[in-house]
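Late entry, evening session. Most of the bench is empty. Finally got around to the prediction I had been postponing all week. Sequence below, unchanged from the version circulated by S.P.
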Amino acid sequence: MKVKVFDENHEKDLENSVNMFLSTLNGDIIDIKYEVSISIFGEEQIYCFSAMIIYNE
């Protein structure tokens, strides 16, 4: 069992990264975990989109 973690600033970037990884995966996906975090820096909101793929090769 292995994991692959992705962390992006935009949801479309995360989507692209995950899709690229999945297109090259030669194994079985066990689970995909997804999370969004938000922080505030001054007047700006900062988003963090992350995913963890648990898989077998």
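Two things to note before I forget:
The chain has one domain: 2-56.
The radius of gyration is 13 Å.
Will write this up properly tomorrow.
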